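Retro notes, structure queue

What went well: the backlog is down to a handful. What didn't: a couple of records were mislabeled last round, so from now on we paste the full input next to the output in the thread. Example, using Sister chromatid cohesion protein PDS5 homolog A isoform X1 from Cottoperca gobio:
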Amino acid sequence: MEFPQQQKPAGDGKIIYPPGVKDITDKISNDEVVKRLKMVVKTYMDMDQDSEEEKQQYLGLALHLASEFFLRNPNKDVRLLVACCLADIFRIYAPEAPYTSHDKLKDIFLFITRQLKGLEDTKSPQFNRYFYLLENLAWVKSYNICFELEDCNEIFIQLFKTLFSVINNSHNQKVQMHMIDLMSSIIMEGDGVTQELLDTMLINLIPAHKNLNKQAYDLAKTLLKRTVQTIETCIANFFNQVLVMGKSSVSDLSEHVFDLIQELFAIDPMLLTSVMPQLEFKLKSNDGEERLAVVRLLAKLFGAKDSELASQNRPLWQCFLGRFNDIHVPVRLECVKFASHCLMNHPDLAKDLTEYLKVRSHDPEEAIRHDVIVTIINAGKKDLNLVNDQLLGFVRERTLDKRWRVRKEAMMGLAQLYKKYCLHHEAGKESALKISWIKDKLLHIYYQNSIDDKLLVEKIFAQYMVPHSLDTEEKMKCLYYLYACLDTNAVKALNEMWKCQNMLRSLVKELLDLHKLPVSEANSTAMFGKLMSIAKNLPDAGKAQDFMKKFNQVLGEDEKLRVQLEMLISPTCSCKQAEICVREITRKLTFPKQPTNPFLEMVKFLLERIAPVHIDSEAISALVKLLNKSIEGTADDDEEGVTPDTAIRSGLELLKVLSFTHPTAFHSAETYESLLQCLKMEDEKVAEAAIQIFRNTGQKIETELQQIRSTLIPVLHQKAKRGTPHQAKQAVHCIHAIFNNKEVQLAQIFEPLSRSLNADVPEQLITPLVSLGHISMLAPDQFASPMKSIVANFIVKDLLMNDRSVGNKNGKLWTTDEEVSPEVLAKVQAIKLLVRWLLGMKNNQSKSANSTLRLLSAMLVSEGDLTEQKKISKSDMSRLRLSAGGAIMKLAQEPCYHDIITPEQFQLCGLVINDECYQVRQIFAQKLHLALVKLMLPLEYLAVFALCAKDPVKERRAHARQCLLKNISVRREFMKQNPLAQEKLISLLPEYVVPFMIHLLAHDPDFTKPHEYEQLKDIKECLWFMLEVLMTKNENNSHAFLRKMVENIKQTKDAQCPDDAKANEKMYIVCDVALFVIANKSTACHLDSPKDPVLPSKFYIVQDKDFKNEKEYLATEMRQMLLSGKPKPAAVLGAVNKPLTVPGRRIFTKTTTASDTTSNTSTNSSPLSSSTNKNSNNNAATESSDSQAQENIENPVIKNDEGKKEEPSQNATPDTETEASPVKRRGRQPKTAPATPAAVEKEGAAAPTGGVAGRGRKRAADPNSNPSAESINIKMSKQQQQNDEGTKRQIDLQR
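Corresponding output:
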């Protein structure tokens, strides 16, 4: 607009004042000026734009009021009144102003702007005039006049600064509204917003200013919302210059761009329509810190509760997700932290985040893996539906993380979810079902070696799974149904947990008992041993030892502390008492001046482990009541997700476990009455568990509960005579454990059973045989002699040496327990009876052990068919081989019998681990491992695991290796903890297994051609299978010790056949292979040996000093072949490298199939988690999976890759039943010298063991070997060939 020329006042320049108003000059006082100005203000207020006459009349006054006198007046009231007049003048004369000078207009608006500062004080008497001024300016949009001024920006900046500075929380909505109107008109009606003016608005959004003046922030927020269409371009320009062009000097706010973007996005995303693509550019910056800043910003924008940015700007979202894989660690960390808010506020984005969180859950940075867990758990705690199964799976994986901090976070997170959704049912049954796996997973972690993991599982169990703070009934209900829902491995872990806690309580009790003895050196040594054992059960073993020594010192000085501790570990201590004791002990050890007390923390760890926070007499009563309700059908079993039968069975199992750890808590008539009811139930497992509970807890029944005794005895007799085998065993042990007149009671069972034995009815034999075996073991003095005639006349002659029925000729090598014939089950129990009878006697005065060992050996040589009448089925033969091998191994655990086991019998026993039946190999290896790890078997039996190198199934090889590692570590640890063990080095030091291994391999029936590469390669693999584990570390120069030991063996002769040159040569060849392996795997083996090894005289005969064997039995080219492999022959048309074969032996090659690709940490690969069953071979066998059982089917239907069925190959391996007359079968004597029944009967159980070549078991057949007739070096008669037609089979060992 064009400014008009200066208007002239009427009356030749004379100023006309409103009626009653005298001249206002500098000659009058301020008060008078104010008085007169008020009247002028009133006049202008009453005027409107249509008053043309008055407008002209008072024009001079309007010009006068803009004079320096008024604009520079020091009086505040004068200035306010003048400003009000000027505002009205602009209103009245609008749209033309009476002032034409640009400078004058600038002065006037700057003057008015300054007066607006008076709005700050709402309590001022003049506030209404200030408000009137603001209202007038806003309504008239007076400041729009300034657009034509060149420096109008200065006025607007001053105005905006003034308004943002004066706004405060005492202003009402009208004040803010007029300010918004005033400023928005300037923004929306101008040509644009300068950067300086934009800064005056944006500065109020910066966090520091926002916190100082919240009202200014709200004012800016509202202003920006109203002017979004106009100001968006200006904002985009600002961010473009700063973000893209890098012109930070363009504004003082450049360093706050990301804060501003966040605030502007929260105000209105439309403000940043053009800015978001610029952020995508910044996300790809080369500067890590810059990327971090952008990621932080976008995390807030994407994660905001109502943000739709991810759906509106997919390219930016995808670019942001890419930062999860950023090379800069803080960027990845920020992304993971963002995911938590995103999952909570935007569940629809969970799918996008899942894949990126999966990668980050395996991030090399511990902090990032930790935060992934925190992210998922926090979202899950808010609402379980926010996290899918895949996300929870990441947390599950991290429970096995290598870092303790990550594992702990994952375990605690899962525990919190379990308590919230499974225990408290905060989201219904569906959510509880979704995470029902948590309870099992958490308990599985108890299998880990770390003591920290074990302690945390115990803590989680006590606080989250079965909270000890609950009242007894609620707590036991929780435990009762938890136990019923756990999987098998979780149950084992929970049982192990109670067992460990009970063991620790025993150690503390023994320590306290030592404090009661007089001080002595022996006492101090014993105390030290107990303290070291206790420290091993606490975190950080080094510190734990020091703290336990300190704690022991405090115990010695403080009798009250000892009393409290004794009360805590007392069998009669209740849960409430335990809490009081822990509190008292903690209080005594607390030092107020110490902010942190690691000593106290360690003691707390100990107290937490030994305090009975769950189980006491009251708790057992509550469990028994729950069991009764389940039996009566009045319990909440179905509501808890278990059937009544499952609840009863698992409830009894739970009570059985607790009867081992808390036997005293069971001693009440009510509890025993309930258990008697269980004995009458049809469920076999329930009755068995009830008997075992009586056995563990009933020591005082005879003296204190006569009524229970009189009811229990007939039931136990009945179970021992006609119950299941397991019930019979427990009944006999129960009678022996809790009754004083046990001899009379056992005799009443023994006599009728021994008279009623009838081999023609094998179904009725099994329970009597079990009972008789256990009676003779528990009371040998009374029953050993009468048992001898039973063994000679019935067990051996009538039962074992006769095959009354014909087995099922289905060709399977293994069948389920239900399919095993009753006669074979009876024979298995007969073998066990023989062993129990001998273990009870513990002497060999009558030479019965020799006879029994010959019988067992004969059974192994004949492959389980002792009579060789071919009546027995393949699967039944497998059962009997397993029983015979297990029986020899059991007898070897008794020193008096171990001494009479010959090397030949030891070798026969060991070869069971190479049996052709998968289940036989599996169960035998498990039994072998269990006996070895408990240090019950002599060291020589550890050598048997070397033969596992030949097992074609990778799973079995991996399991054997785990067994070796565990056994070796157990023996080394035992030697460290027991200094006296140094005297028994030859029976404990793992390195001493090498002589036994060399002897065993030298007598391997497969080792027939000692100079052939394939056979030597097998020997090398067996040797390295053991040596690899032994040579992991070179402790005390053990590599040199091993070398020296093997060299010494070369200077001896084989004690088994000292005059057989060929046997000795084979032994020396094995020694050379062993030396070759040791030298190739160790550079330190040529050093001097720390000790001179001692060789077992049972296996080696030391020669005179004149005897020197310096011959090299391995040719140079053979060494090279063993080192690098046999060179492949040149390709010949139609020929494939056919595997070498050995007469009488199945072709054996290690294969890799589907089972080989499974992880070596699977259940079957770990000796600790392997399924084991001490009760019987039969039950243990059923734990093999169906897929493993299929390997022994004679003609399996195999599915190829396309899923099509394939019939057995025409070139299948010859039937195992096929006889090769001219060649001795492995595990069978030559037909020219059969093991006749008469020979076996001699001396009650005697049987020839056969020569070296005819001993042993057939190796497991290789499923992939397919030899043609040319490659099988066996001559078969025409009659045999005819018999074999159509009966060839393919054994798939790895299905």
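Agreed that this is the format going forward. Reviewer comment attached to the example: The chain has 60 helices and four strands.
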